[in-house]
User: Fold these one by one.
Assistant:
Number 1:
Amino acid sequence: MSSRTEVQEAYAHCRQIARNHYENFPVGSVLIPGKLRPHFYAFYAFMRSADDFADLPHRSSDERLTLLAAYRQKLNSLSVGAYVKDPVFIALADTIDKFNLSVSPFERLLDAFEFDARGQWVFEAMQDQRWYTSRSAEPVGELVLALFGYQDRQRIGWSNEICSALQILNFVQDVKEDLAGGRCYFPREDCWRLGVEPENLSAKPDSLKKLMLYETKRAEEMLNLGAPLAESVKGRLKYELRAVILSARALIAKIVDIGGDTYNSRPTLTKREHVMTLFRSLITKVS
């Protein structure tokens, strides 16, 4: 059992990790209530640390997997109520206890990190890609919903569509960087269908653009399937989800505007666009 001081210090440690990164996780959103922020920091610190293990430079795949195995063992210890002397897990244990959370979402996140650590990025079909996003992205949405008191199957299903859509859009955004690192997160069947060789995606620029538009369209369809989630919840979460969906749609529009050429021009939203989306979320329903 951790002392009150130890728990507070653990949350402060997680907060520092989050403050140093942010990225796409909503730990920095002004729409997140202050009382929930420490728990968002705990989630983020767990994911950020594990992700770093999966992507450590100058480490072999076996070494990365060993580090992740140790993290999984710590998570297993939490699941049986054991004390883990690690600030990330001290904070995580407190959050899990307060919100009566399952460790399953965290286990699925580790599945994705282990997949990346193995360095074998091959998805034969769309279902294989979805296997990955169901572990790399969907648990995040499930955990966020749980902090706001929503754990029903319908809302989790909508959230899964949104989170997987966001992950696919991230693949489209980062195609150049991923290819440079030997990573390809697009189903091989999609590549062949659109005239792109999976092992050499950049060899045919026009076909690659078509592939990026195809994947973007799939993400848009998934986003639309999950959109009812925003109007099904109350309070600040409603506006946070609206902002997420509106931002994703704005990004999709940018990808379409450049004809899918994300290899040569990484589409992003400007700070002003993010602020405008935040304001729009307060008055605009999404469907």
Number 2:
Amino acid sequence: MQKALITGITGQDGSYLADLLLKNGYEVHGMVRRVATEVPLHRFWRIKHILERVQLHAATLENFASIMKVFMAVKPDECYHLAAQSFVTNSFEDEHSTMQTNIDGTHYVLSALKEVVPKCRFYFAASSEMFGNAKTDFQDENTPFNPRSAYGISKVAGFHMTRHYREAYGIHATSGILFNHESPRRGYEFVTRKITRRVAAIKRGMYRSLTLGNLDARRDWGHAAAYVVAMWLMLQQKDPDDYVVATGETHSVREFCEKAFAVAGMDYRDYVEQDEKLFRPSDAGTSDVHFLRGNYSKARLALCWSPTFTFDLLVKDMVLNDLENYPDTGPRT
């Protein structure tokens, strides 16, 4: 039986990936912060349905010794490094912890893997935020990086570190450059889930409005359940490589609002307000990364992967989940 280790197993992607690996017959291990084991209702809500089928190990990305201990105990055949400080807005507010967690953590995981299980296949969760304000209509594996946040910068560093371990040490190390991907398991701090959850709250009569930042910012949005399939396929390839995973379409925050409120039979214009104070800052003086759209041709040809959710289906899935479960979905504080 193949053994897989997932860092960030309690997150959106980690939970869907764990579902997929269990379905494929893997023995699944997850690395979690020790504090998570002390408040499981809050931290484990995404994996509560599989808690008895996975093995969790306490460690922290800021501590190399704890990561080494996990690798020595598990000795995985595949490692999916998904854990990171992944909320871009927070990376503006706390650049130091973002850099430490995302850069040092990736280095520690790769180093432990090299020392303990050098034949283990490694996946690094890169990000479209590495492209920043790209100069091209589509971004692919050859598009220059132009990150506009500490988070994007940290992911560029992790990408190059992954490539370094592949080339210098012969590790089967792959980076997946995933564009935005959402789901009913998305955290409440992200704009898509903020929208769908507020739709449910307004429908219940608990709120009257929703205030957002840049409604015209555009993203290439896919469904996390489809994107973790691409992750798995990457590690099944004979040779490691880097792949863009995307839909090839962009939609604005305004469009997301329009679709989300329409699912609940409402007009977003009656409820949504824009506040420029919520725009992202940048040291170049622009308010946000406005346009990202991925070219996933390489993944389609090499992995035989394509997105399986349309934009409308993604929004509908998220809204219906929140309409059905509000306010009981997600973590309890």
Number 3:
Amino acid sequence: MASSLFSGWIDLKRGLPFHGGVIMKFKPIDLRSDTVTQPTEEMRDAMRGAPVGDDVFHEDPTVNQLEDLAARMLGKEGALFVVSGTQGNLVSLLSQTERGDEIIVEELSHIFKYEVGGYAVIGGLTAKPIPSEKGVLNPEVIERAIRPQDIHQPITRMVCVENTHNMHGGTITPPQRMNEICDLAHQYGLKVHLDGARVFNASVALGIDVKKLTRPADSVMACLSKGLCAPVGSIVAGNEGFIGSARRYRKMLGGGMRQAGIIAAAGIVALEKMVTRLAEDHATARLIAERLNHVPGLSIDMDRVQTNIVFVDFSKLHTTGKELERLLEKRGVLVIALGDTQFRVVTHYGIEKDDAERASEIIEEVRMEIIRKKGLRSERRG
């Protein structure tokens, strides 16, 4: 097929999905990301009937309702509806730093690796990447990274925490560690920003109120458009002064939306109705991980399978990531290869137990196809 990306479009005459401009005879099991979720019927109904106004004038009642709800849930004085998680992270950094400052980030964090260097290009900031323990920052490592007061060096201004951590397989920073990080940072006069794109996954997996993870941080970003299924948007939360500054930077970045209540309505449903069901995604991720971890040629660090993300090591198959993606795509399973050694599976709303089992079967079958083509020896694993 021409493209490795499933567009998600539907042929209206026949009800069949397009994939790379080609009508497929089946709907793919899309495990690339929880960003591919579709809004629920309740969200569509809410969007259709949402009262709206001009949000730049702070006059959209549905946006205001969403922001009030999010602030209460995240334990903050105020909240701001933004277009995306990337925009939310950037306005949070801009609102709490000065040009020339340095931020401490985990070395595989989304802010550092996947947000186009906005902290540097737009914020004029430098970043100090530090290692972690499977995505969980160590306060002692953070303390060593804080710059001394020296005119030759930038000023350390902020610590960024990602919870759950995407590139470590959806791992969780627990409340006690979050408290320790924030206590240390505040001791040094630093701000703490929580990139909580999937922070509700963390709270559901731990069985705790999300406020126990968000309250210690000075600012929080939480996505509505991943596992919570809203079609677009994220929330930034913090104290009133921070929100006022973030609103100004949102406008600067082109995020001053007008009748945004139409999409904010879906965000309200997301927060009210879609949080607890994230446990289902965690269960399907665990199902896939446990099954694939027993397949010869594949391996998974099960300690990292804490939420809805699974990293599968396929280095023993001696194939490329692009080839693996192509073979799986041909059989109706979509994943993202991370180079030539790992691929990522993300479960979400719309992926049921049957889908997880079928996807696992197909991955096993493709693994055998690769072995036959390359003449590799297949070893059984107990």
Number 4:
Amino acid sequence: MEIKTFDLNSVSAWDELVNRFSGGPYLYRAWQEACLKTYGQKPVFLLAFRGQEAAGGLVLSRFKGLRSKSLVSLPFCDYGGPLAEDEEVKKSLVAKAERLSQEIGPLEIRFPEPVSFLPEGSTAKVRLLLPLPDDTETLWKSFKAKVRSQIRRPMKEGAQAICGGLELVPAFYRIYAQNMHFLGSPPHALSWFRNIVSAYKERARVVLVHLEGKPLAGAILLLTPQVATVPWASSLRAYKRISPNMLLYWRLLSLAVEEGAKLFDFGRSTPGSGTYRFKKQWGAQEAPLFWYRVPASEEKTSRLRPYVEKLWRRLPERVANYLGPKLRGRIAL
């Protein structure tokens, strides 16, 4: 087996490899293009060859953090990891990444599931996954009566869900940025979302819930032939009473069914958290993530984090939205 290294310009047929191994939306070239264009984070592609045919691959980001450089597969998302069915290939790709990290900095590989050949790693976060039926009527009937009632609630108020592309990104961003300020977390840049939607083209959708022309909730949906994933979703807390997020997710789920997806990925959550409970009510089941770090780091919540979040909330929203993207591009989570 031979492992070769490529950059974004020289790698060929990468997306075909992602589809071949059902790698998920973050593994596509589009994610790496957006990381590079928005934040200058350069990818490195490792391809494992047996003869002339690629037996697997691993994409890493040469990530420039706040204090140091590292290798991450992949930043700003739930998972990356090697693409291969053969465990030997996966081991070889990870071993190559470990050797590269000795030259660049710490290594982090976010696997979408636990792996047997790496006994140590973090499983503190889980994805929430929902198998999808072939039609929206069956999907609707699968929900509990309480969930269906909550979906109808914003509709009775006159709210509507619309689907589009780049033209809806600014409206989505206003909701997202306001929500991030409330949570005490720096937001991504507006250009990040524009670059994501542009790079993914027909594989990306922006969904908004409107009430009398005012956007109340929004999300971005990324599609592969089998999986529909929601990396970002936000709603205005001032309208929590009418549950616009329930209509938002109904539209996201029904859109995923219409596009032929077989699995809906609600994204990562901490078990027992509010977002975890929200996703579980749709019938989603948890699937542990496995984050592997070299050198290993302890998993513990920083005592400073609540204070930092509190301080960030106290910043004027304009200041937070100006400073946030400058910091966010250097935070791999």
